[in-house]
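User: Can you model how phosphoenolpyruvate sits in this protein?
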Amino acid sequence: MRTPIVAGNWKMHKTAAEARELISSIAAGLSGEEKTEIVVCPPFTALAASAEAVEDTPIRLGAQNINPHDSGAYTGEIAPGMLKEHGVTHAIIAHSERRQYYGETNASALEKVKAALTSGLVPIYCVGETLEQREAGETAFVVERQVREGLAGIPADAFKILVIAYEPVWAIGTGRTATSEQAQEVHALIRATVSALAGVEAADAVRIQYGGSVKPANAAEIFAQPDVDGGLIGGAALEAKSFVAIVQAAG
Ligand code: PEP
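Assistant: Here's the modeled complex, given as structure tokens:
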């Protein structure tokens, strides 16, 4: 049985003070009965304040990016160990905005996934096709390749830890959600690809989140699909009530 995971990607939103407030509101909205792993991913500058705010709550802390090196001359970058020092447990890797604006590739994602695993962070590896690719009938090809290249050589056991997020780029921040059938189809393909890469046990264990305009109104239907194990949430994660409702829709 896979534990669902719902993570909020706050992107470049929320100051440290605002992060503290949002986390307290989320914590106050939880019943304590949730069976879902709950993660919030604030900007780097809000991590220290967020680490204090998540104490004594079931909420875990994620980073939105990592540098794969331990230290060194990498101006503007943050190493996994520095994040762990602030209580970070998860890291989003190769979000489509990082692929689109910062030149991240499947190869650079693989380095980051490896570094996250080595340092004890849970990687949330993002994949997904653009609208152009979907309309050209290339979804399966593109997503399979992102999984094969971004997770090449990752040991089978690591699939019990790492998380894959399927985020169709055309659904991110657009209000246009994939139908539950469209999501399930790609999630099943991702699981089959993991099976081919690392075996059936790894495929059964790996958690695959859906991301792209998930809201309280559509979360339950998407999360009910057999290969969907929770969600990566952007806009709706910035409001405590909607994020809590989405967490609770996951289980
Ligand atoms: C995201 O950026 O990961 C995301 C899913 O955004 P939204 O929920 O706003 O579409």
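A couple of observations from the model: The mean pLDDT is 97. The pocket of phosphoenolpyruvate is lined by residues 9, 167, 172-173, 211-214, 232-236 (CB under 6 Å).
User: Helpful, thanks.
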